[in-house]
Design brief:
mainly alpha
């Protein structure tokens, strides 16, 4: 990752930061959209025929497990709808704003040494110890081999964790209305992302507006 701390001009730093991350965000979203396209086809088959075939149903089961869902013995369109709620993109504007906020524009120790742009915690014992970790706390911050894997982990977190179900419902509602998946709208589902709650949501939405990041949403 570039050393964004060396860029003194604030406007230039922001532009370089967003330009560097945006292709990775789009790559992760493109992978998800490929799965979503296949999932929509399987959902249609389940609704029409009650079956999608051995291979497609096996793929659906694996996908559902990857997204943290318990898979029933019998698959149907209703279950496919549950999977579709999770298998969808995160608006680029939201990812970029959160990355900027959580990593101090790519200059934090976790970003520089661990490619962690979103303040994600480590699931096990591996990871980096925060210097300001409160007494008695044992959590560590996750590290990733690459920036792309950091983004993929962040997207997976929003798509699977129960705390972000509201975000997923907002996104599904935008889909039903055939509207752009807006990062400004999705941010309303981030109340649990930070201890700052509603203040954090307002900060992220303000960053999206002031940096005109909505232009990157699809």
């Amino acid at each position: 990752m570039p050393d964004f701390g060396e860029i003194e001009d604030t406007t230039e730093k922001k532009e370089e930061f967003f330009a560097y991350l945006l292709p990775y965000v789009r790559e992760v979203n493109a992978d998800i959209l490929r799965d979503r396209h296949r999932l929509l086809g399987i959902r249609a088959e389940l609704a029409e025929d009650g079956s999608a075939g051995f291979f497609d149903e096996g793929w659906l089961r694996r996908l559902a497990e990857d997204y943290g869902l318990d898979v029933p013995e019998e698959l149907d369109a209703a279950f496919a709808d549950k999977v579709l709620l999770r298998v969808d993109i995160i608006a680029p504007s939201l990812a970029l704003a959160q990355a900027a906020n959580e990593s101090a524009w790519g200059t934090s120790r976790f970003a520089r040494r661990g490619n962690n742009l979103f303040g994600m915690r480590a699931p096990g014992e591996e990871g980096m110890i925060p210097r300001r970790r409160a007494a008695g706390k044992t959590f560590k911050v996750a590290t990733y081999p690459s920036v792309r894997e950091s983004i993929a982990a962040y997207v997976a977190n929003l798509n699977t964790h129960y705390r972000y179900r509201r975000l997923r419902l907002i996104r599904a509602d935008l889909r039903r209305q055939d509207q752009v998946i807006s990062g400004h709208a999705l941010a309303n589902g981030l109340l649990a992302y930070s201890t700052r709650g509603a203040e954090y949501v307002s900060i992220i939405q303000s960053m999206i507006r002031t940096n005109e990041l909505g232009r990157y949403d699809e």
